[in-house]
Structures are given as C-alpha cells and as structure tokens.
Amino acid sequence: MSTSKENSKRRDGLKLFIFGFIFGIITLALFSWIVMPKMMITIHESRYATIDETCDKLKQSIEAHGWSSPMIRDLNATLEKKGVYMKRSVKVVELCKGSYANDVLTTNPEVSTLMSCAWGVYQGDDGKIYISGMNMGLMGKMFGGNIAKVIGGAVAVDEENMLKNIILR
Predict the structure, then answer these.
(1) Segments forming the whole domain that contains residue 110
(2) Which of 39, 48, 55, 76 stands the most exposed, by the fewest C-beta atoms within 10 Å?
(3) pLDDT tens string for the chain (169 positions)?
C-alpha cells in the first residue's frame, strides 16, 4: 500500500514540476514580448529646438569622432514623392565607420542588413525633439562573437560619445 501512495506522490510532484516549467516558459516569453522591444530602441531628448539643428549637430559629432555620415534622409520628402503625407516630420541620420563595418562583415556578412547605423530624429507629441536608435550594446550581445565585440562594444561606446553633447541627460 505504501508504494501506491509513493507513486501517487511522485506523479503529483511530476505534474507540479511540469506545470511550473511550462508556467515559467510562458512567463519568460510574455516578459520578453513586452520588455524586449522597449530595450531594443533607445530614445533620447535632443538639446536642440529643431529637427534640422539636431541633424546638423549629429552630423558634426559623427564626423568629429572619425565616422562618416553619408546621408541625412528626409522621410517626409521621400514619402511625399509616393503620395503619402505624414503629419510628423522625421529624418534619418546615417552613420558609418568603414573599419568597423569591414570587421563585422568579414566574419558575419549576413548582418549586412544592419549596415549602416542610423538615428531617427523626430518631433514628439510633446513638441520636443527626439533621437532614436538601436540599442547597439544589447543588440551586439544578443548576436555574440565578433558582432558582440564590435557592435556591442566599440560601436556602442562610440555612439554614446557622439551623443553625449547632443542629448539631455
């Protein structure tokens, strides 16, 4: 009789373990679904009053830190050519450092879709100017290896330094 009770306790314990395991996986997935998007994009308030002034200051800082800024894209103008009119003004400031790009693409050409880096500049609903970008430190760490070293390390540090005098803290 005692073996029947022991078996019943084992089955109950196993059921509890399986339930807890599944509950843990679901909780982790839900947490990731809610929190990860907010962690992947960084948003900073600009010190400057206009989108154009912010874009000019970004370009100057990018170049002062040894990077290039191949283009500032006016998304409104691009979309207007397609007959789409946005209420909010949005520009994208591209930035690239050839040596970093070469280092990453030599080992991981599949991430070419992430090249070049860019910051979005827009006016928020509150009238303030914001700069948004990918969280390069987190993104690099997610990939691991050489991408973590270059994008999660050097690029993230350089971007932080470029933004230091342009954003409000």
Answers:
(1) 40-163
(2) 39
(3) 467 778 787 888 888 888 888 888 888 777 766 766 677 899 999 999 999 999 999 999 999 999 999 999 999 999 999 999 999 999 999 999 999 999 999 999 998 887 778 999 999 999 999 999 998 888 888 888 999 999 999 999 999 999 999 999 7
The domain that holds 49 is classified in CATH as 3.30.310.70
Residue 22 lies in a domain: no
Instruction: Report helix angle 136-143 to 2-40, nearest 10.
Output: 130
Q: Dihedral angle at the C-alpha atoms of 82, 88, 91, 92, nearest 10 degrees?
A: -90
Torsion of CA 93, 69, 74, 44, to 10 degrees: 10
The structure's pTM equals 0.79
Report the number of distinct structural domains present in the chain.
1
